[in-house]
Write a structure and sequence with these properties.
Strands 1-2-3 form a three-stranded antiparallel β-sheet, with no helix packed on it. A three-stranded mixed β-sheet has the order 4-5-6. About 30% of the residues lie in helices and about 25% in strands. With about 140 residues, the protein is of the alpha+beta class.
Length: about 140
Amino acid sequence: MKKIYTAVGIAQGGRGGGTAKTDDGMLDLILAHPKKMGGDGQGTNPEQLFAVGYSSCFLGAMKFVNSKAKKPLTLSPDSTVTAHVSFGPRSDKKGFGIEVKLDVSLPGVKKAEATALAKKAHVVCPYSHAIRKNVKVTTKIV
C-alpha cells in the first residue's frame, strides 16, 4: 500500500479512567466505561470512536463511489450513516468482539439505488475492508 496519510492516536490508562488523543491535538478525550458496562459514562469509549470513524469513512466511500459513476446520483448534504457498534464476549470465549449495524439515509435516493451504492462503498471503504470476514456488519437503508 502506498501511504498517503497516517493518523496517530495515543491512549494512556485505557478505558475506565484513561485518555485518548491525537498527536495534532484535534482530539483529546477522557475514556470511560459506559453506564451499561458498570462505568460512570463520563467519557467516551473505543466503541463510540469506532462508530464515528466507520460512519464518517463509509459516507465518504459512498460519495467517492458515486463520484466515479457514469451517472452520479444527487446526494443530499443531509445524507447520513449511523453506525451502531455492539461489544460483547466472543462465542469462542477467548476475548471480546464487536458487531456493526450501519443505517444509511440518502434522502431523495431510491432504495435500490442506495443499496447498490452502499454495496460498492463496502468494497472501497477501508473500515469495511479491514473488518471483512472478521466482524458481522449489517447495512440497512433507512
